[in-house]
Amino acid sequence: MAKKETRLQTRKLAWGITGAGDKLAETVEVMRAVREKDYLINVFVSSEGETVLKWYKLFDAVSNDFDSFAVEKGPNSPFILGDLQTGQYDALIISPATANTVAKIVHGIADTLLTNAVAQTAKSDTPIYIYPVDDTKGEIKTKAPNGREFKLKMRDIDLKNTKKLKKMENIQVLKSPAELNDYFR
Questions:
Q1: Model-level pTM?
Q2: Which of 22, 161, 163, 177 has the fewest CB atoms nearer than 10 Å to its CB?
Q3: Cα-atom radius of gyration of the chain, to the nearest Å?
Q4: 59, 92 in Cβ contact below 8 A?
């Protein structure tokens, strides 16, 4: 019981996972490493994020290994916006973020839990960290759930949206999920 009471007084992160598979396993590794640094991590997953976590066989680990876990029911459910805006969380992290999520954020569309969380959190002092999977011109190598490597070509429109994301206030764009280890020590 004493451990639980201590955990309630630790630093607190809201961690969003979208439907991107690229660097998903790495993201989960980073989440575990950050948690070990005495961070309480509440995980919020988009509906497509749930599908991809299951496809990569990471759903059970993510849903069971962290302090809380919730799947999106709508743009405001589960309700996290008030806590994000009032400083109840030390940060909002979206990793990995799909090109679709990034496009919605940069165009002000807040019709999902995670895009709405970014839109509303950006109005406060709570920092936002986003790892967009579409950030490198050309082809990238990624892995399928079975471990097989394959290549994906980045679309110009997705790269342009990531470039716009980098210019938005209160948002730190990451080159990889591993960068989060530098921010959360």
A1: 0.89
A2: 163
A3: 16
A4: no
